[in-house]
Amino acid sequence: MINEKKIKAMNGIPMLLLFLALLVANVFMLVHAGQNQITWMLVVGIIAIPVIIVLLVGLFMVNPNESKVLQLFGEYVGTVNAPGLRWANPFYGKKAVSLRVRNFESGKLKVNDSAGNPIEIATVVVWKVVDTAEAIFEVDDYESFVHIQTEAALRNLATAHPYESHNDEKITLRSDPQEIANLLQKEVQDRLNKAGVQVIEARISHLAYAQEIAAAMLKRQQAQAIVAARTQIVEGAVGMVEIALEQLSAKSIIELDDERKAAMVSNLLVVLCGEENAQPVVNSGSLY
User: Fold this and answer.
1) What is the reported pLDDT for 188?
2) What is the side-by-side strand order in the sheet with 10-11?
3) Per-residue pLDDT reduced to its tens digit, 123-163
4) d(Cα 58, Cα 86) in Å, to the nearest integer?
5) Residue 227 CB neighbour total at 10 angstroms
6) pLDDT of 69-83, one tens digit each?
7) Helices (H), the chain
8) Structural domain 102-209, CATH architecture
9) 179, exposed or middle or buried, with CB in 10 Å at 0-12, 13-18, 19+?
10) CA-based, 20 to 30 A from 67: which of 138, 150, 263, 273?
11) Domain extents for the chain?
12) What pTM did the predictor assign?
């Protein structure tokens, strides 16, 4: 693997002033040689013009949070990180690489979770280049490489975990967002190490059942919610009935035999668990 090698380039401002001074001096020399018919001076002045122009090509700008990768006839020379106007060998090839933090949002992918349910999932990845040599020379196009490998990692993660818990699974896509984010970041980073890229953060940005099963899964979730609510209502009603019977017995308000207790429990459970308001019935007779 080709690793980044940092090098220092000369300050470009003094070099620019020097080249401009040489250019001005050369113009005056040509004018003087032409007026006085000095052949050798005229030849030197003409040759000096393209030389000065070639030297000016060695000037290049490095912006903040940017690097310039230098090559000489296909060979990697080094990377310049210091911002400002710089000068290096004019025959160096120079390629800019941004070191800024970037983010990428994948499109909505349709995959099957570990339970075989079709789901739609998307992610947002925050990343930056940390090794310019690897980013340029180890992969063909590091930005495209980040996008493709991120989607591949997301597909792999989605197929390894269920959308939601059915049998007490440890990690689910819906219920454990932080754990899923950590796993996704690690998997994406493992795939991008060879490209000189650091993954700062990776999170799920969209998660839903696919349209063909969304309605069925919504009914299933509603049924689970109704069962959970009914269970809680019944538990509370049983507790209230138990308290009522205990207080009636403790305060000796009324003596109830087993049959009357059963009738009272039945009536109280109907009142407490029913969805509609109870309709009172006045009983002027006796149970017997």
Assistant:
1) 92
2) 10-11, 84-87, 59-62
3) 999 999 999 999 998 888 899 999 999 999 999 998 888 88
4) 8
5) 10
6) 999 988 989 899 889
7) 12-36, 39-57, 132-137, 142-160, 177-192, 211-250, 258-273
8) 2-Layer Sandwich (3.30)
9) middle
10) 150
11) 10-98, 102-209, 214-273
12) 0.67
